[in-house]
């Protein structure tokens, strides 16, 4: 009997496979197609001949953990203890999985805000716990009244994603106040804050859970070097959590992967001395604005994007097809792959919206836009 009977091939795999079959421009999957910073690849080339190919300590390469502590201090003015509050993971997804597996027990409930990343629900189910899917408002702001109604003494965790994938929305100060009020009513409730796009924000910087004093003792932070440094294939992320939670997370981590890719940890540790993460937002904002300009004469309506490298677009004036059907036809007839937003909802809610990834070189964006403007 399957432990995940309702899990099938992901929409990302389906769309990417179709994109290959029809030689379509793939704006569906969320990874960049432009080169990695040469300074980082030079570091890797240098390290390849050095003695950095064996296991690191279970929690991570100590110099990298120290660099993360400095990064968090500089970015959010939060002091963390590397040895007890940081864990290097095989990507953010492994950090999410490990944290949920460590902290959620049979019979617990976990609130997931839809539309949501598809890797949130499965670890909850594998814990024999119950995912409670609560839809965001249609403008992708949280409905805190509905969220609070979904809470009970069984609720162990609320998962937030900020900046939000797939919508590019960021949480406001008022959202954190509402969240903190809920936590006051439920003292055993934890927050898992997925902030993998934390350095990819535009006109307004996102408010990190790192900056919320009332959350720090009850929050698990998830971050991703893969997203920040355009190295998604390296699968390097990290978790920050208070010691009493990190003890439990490390127990699971040591039996899941034990330790993470050594040369990549050493390389990122050295790279953090020379890279300026504050420039990432400007870089991607230029991408977002250029893509928006390219599509200005199309029939798509682009929705506001405050962060991440995804652009949500309405095709309501083009077709009344459901979004999955429309995305498949977009590939077969027009040669561009996108992701239907309904697949991020538990109930398949269809608002005639699709998601494009604009983390592509300008040539790719221009070619895709030319096809999209012909629809």
UniProtKB/TrEMBL annotation:
Single GO MF annotation: pyridoxal phosphate binding
Required cofactor names: pyridoxal 5'-phosphate
Pfam family, one: Aminotran_1_2
Keyword Transferase: yes
Annotated Aminotransferase class I/classII large domain residues: 24-372
Record keywords: Aminotransferase, Pyridoxal phosphate, Transferase
Superkingdom of the organism of origin: Bacteria
InterPro entries referenced in this protein's UniProt entry, alphabetically: Aminotransferase_I/II_large, Kynurenine-oxoglutarate_AT, PyrdxlP-dep_Trfase, PyrdxlP-dep_Trfase_major, PyrdxlP-dep_Trfase_small
GO cellular component assignments: cytoplasm
Similarity field: Belongs to the class-I pyridoxal-phosphate-dependent aminotransferase family.
NCBIfam families on file: PRK09082.1
Protein name according to UniProt: Methionine aminotransferase
Species assigned in the record: Flavobacterium shii
